[in-house]
Amino acid sequence: MRLLHTSDWHLGRSFHRVNMLSAQAGFLDHLVEVVRAERVDAVLVAGDVYDRAVPPLAAVELFDDALHRLADLGVPTVMISGNHDSARRLGVGSGLMSGAGVHLRTAPAACADPVALPDADGEVLVYGLPYLEPALVREEFGVERADHAAVLGAAMDRVRADLARRPAGSRSVVLAHAFVTGGAPSDSERDITAGGVQAVPAAVFDGVDYAALGHLHGCQTIGERVRYSGSPLAYSFSEAAHRKSMWLVDLGPGGSLTAERTDCPVPRRLARLRGTLEELLADPALAASEDAWVEATLTDPFRPEEPMARLSKRFPHLLVLAFEPAGADAEPDAGYARRLRDRTDQQIAEDFVAHVRGSAANPAEQAILRDAFTAVRVTAAAGEDR
């Protein structure tokens, strides 16, 4: 059986100030074409279909269109909710949609209820484990510790118990949305530490033929049978070196497995540039980045005049501009709270000016800051008195 493993579509998300809906639509066109051209038997979507719990209408329309096209091809889709999705909203109509081959797994209690996909070698049992927020599902799984390893381990115990009741030789696949030990994160994943210790060991998936993971945005192999597909599009500059792809997984008789990557379309390349303003403007080696989405870090000792406007003339798709003056004093090991201890709002603001520009605020600027803080305090006090 040939499976296409993808995840983390984040429909509705933008890239800094760039609307990504057209790029997301392009990816979904590509996905449908891969399913057709590669004779895919089932599509696995391992969570974070949307970027937020209440997605914009245009994102919902993209999702709806993709599901209709996959259903028209007669290719079943198994999909779980991720930590960005609203499980209840995504799962609306799941009972009806299953008749069309779209299997939404968003309820933790149903994690051991597989989708049975038949082929010439027998059934492949696909279990969907939606994102499990420990504090919310602790009672459901009867675990003492409200952490990710405990609840995901309990869910997998249910999967293995169900497998034990199945005919010998049944092949099994699990979809899960989690941070597995050994995975490399990027800047665009939402932190899930609020639910306790976030990482879970790869061994939690022992006993199944393939674990199709979502959450981390870089495509990566944790083990031969435990893989992340990564997001199909880059959502942060930390993903500049990523090769965006999906996994084509062939699951043969007896659980034999081969996997290969199929690349996703790249709407625009990412470039991370660093140097003084004049270096970035003059360096001929940067010509290849002129059509890229650019993150530029300036190392000038003092902030140049109109750096965004000047850089944008050469790099029209400049999205992020940062300043790290060469030779500036820093305390990289000092905790943020410790560095701010006993400092007034005025002093913190003046420190910020010095950090960004490379020189201290002058007396006139200090007066402006002082007046601004006074105005804020007066306004706040007036609001409390109403």
TrEMBL record:
Oligomeric and partner information: Heterodimer of SbcC and SbcD.
Domain annotation Calcineurin-like phosphoesterase: ranges: 1-218
Gene Ontology molecular-function annotations: exonuclease activity
Domain Nuclease SbcCD subunit D C-terminal: 267-355
InterPro entries documented for this protein: Calcineurin-like_PHP (IPR004843), DNA_Repair-Maintenance_Comp (IPR050535), Metallo-depent_PP-like (IPR029052), Mre11_N (IPR041796), SbcD (IPR004593), SbcD_C (IPR026843)
Keyword list, A-Z: DNA recombination, DNA replication, Endonuclease, Exonuclease, Hydrolase, Nuclease
Pfam families: Metallophos (PF00149), SbcD_C (PF12320)
PANTHER family linked: COMPONENT OF ATP-DEPENDENT DSDNA EXONUCLEASE, NUCLEASE SBCCD SUBUNIT D
UniProt function note: SbcCD cleaves DNA hairpin structures. These structures can inhibit DNA replication and are intermediates in certain DNA recombination reactions. The complex acts as a 3'->5' double strand exonuclease that can open hairpins. It also has a 5' single-strand endonuclease activity.
Organism for this UniProt entry: Streptantibioticus silvisoli
Similarity comment text for this entry: Belongs to the SbcD family.
Protein name in UniProt: Nuclease SbcCD subunit D
